[in-house]
Amino acid sequence: MRNESIMERMELFVPDASSVNVKKEGNFAFYAITGIFIFYTVLPLISVLLFSIAGKWTNTILPERWSLSAYIKIFSNAEFISSLTHSCVVSLCVVIIDLSVVTLGLLGISFGASRRALALMEVLAIIPVALPGVVLALASVTFFGKALPALLGSPLLLICTESAFSLPLVFWTLRNAFRDTDIKQLYHASCVLGAPLYKFIFMVLLPALNKGMMAGGALAFTTAFNNFALAQLIVGARWKTLPVLQNGYIAIDGHQTSAMAIVSIALTFTLIIIAGTIKGRGTGETR
């Protein structure tokens, strides 16, 4: 009897062969779908990279001759350097404006505990998502054309419009960061310990919100950096950004256009890696 009971208990811990097979099939399906997705995502990037360094590519799978002339041309082109600088300036300004506005707004809501203000802010953050970029740009041009005609075609109007367009991305990432952090309790604890306001901001608040700020800032930067519709409609060729310049070079030289795209992608990935590194250090320090 004892042996039978022991065998019954052991059978409870021995996995069924059918369950093992189902688990293996599930893992295989997961890895297969993930591999297909990665291949579908990376293949266009590889094609653009190969075309940018191809000296001659006609009817073969790989380029017949390799050349870095496209990169040499764009980096020796003053117009490319100028447009790249314009895109970086616009994107950095958008990040600073969005992070400042959203952080101050959510801080006020956290200390004021106003649900109506939070609901209003959530509605305002949804509006730019609901409106297409072209509609947002045309609305800005129409409104400021009558209210402040001097802003038409200016980089300042582009920065303001891009900030409104990227605001939801920053708002929802920081909103989640505020949900995970009791800002009011941290502030009261800092006051009890006698910490001045600037120490609370730089040594408590920013490290606590570091994860959300890095993610929101990276999203805002990449969105503003790669936005062609708003830049084309608001400033156009008067103050070219990199997407506008790329669009003009499509009919001139496809190799240079591909090289510009690779530079843009490399800059974006570098920013994401830096943001992830800073986020990880900040999270470790906060813990």
Distance between the termini: 55 Å
- The coarse overall form would be globular
The residue ranges in which pLDDT falls below 50 over 5 or more consecutive positions are 10-14
Number of helices: 13
Strand order of the largest sheet: 1-2
CATH-defined fold name of the largest domain: MetI-like fold
Number of strands: 2
In short:
The chain has 287 residues and is an all-alpha fold. It is built from 13 helices and two strands.
What's the helix and strand layout?
Layout: H1 2-13, H2 17-52, E1 54-56, E2 65-66, H3 69-75, H4 78-112, H5 115-130, H6 133-147, H7 155-179, H8 183-192, H9 197-208, H10 210-225, H11 228-234, H12 242-249, H13 254-286
Antiparallel strand pairs: 1-2
Q: Care to describe what's here?
A:
With 287 residues, the chain is mostly helical. It folds into 2 domains: 2-67; 71-286, MetI-like fold (Orthogonal Bundle). It is 81% helix and 2% strand. It has 13 helices and 2 strands. The protein has a two-stranded antiparallel ribbon with strand order 1-2. Helix 4 (78-112) crosses helix 7. The radius of gyration is 26 Å and the shape is globular. The N and C termini lie far apart (55 Å).
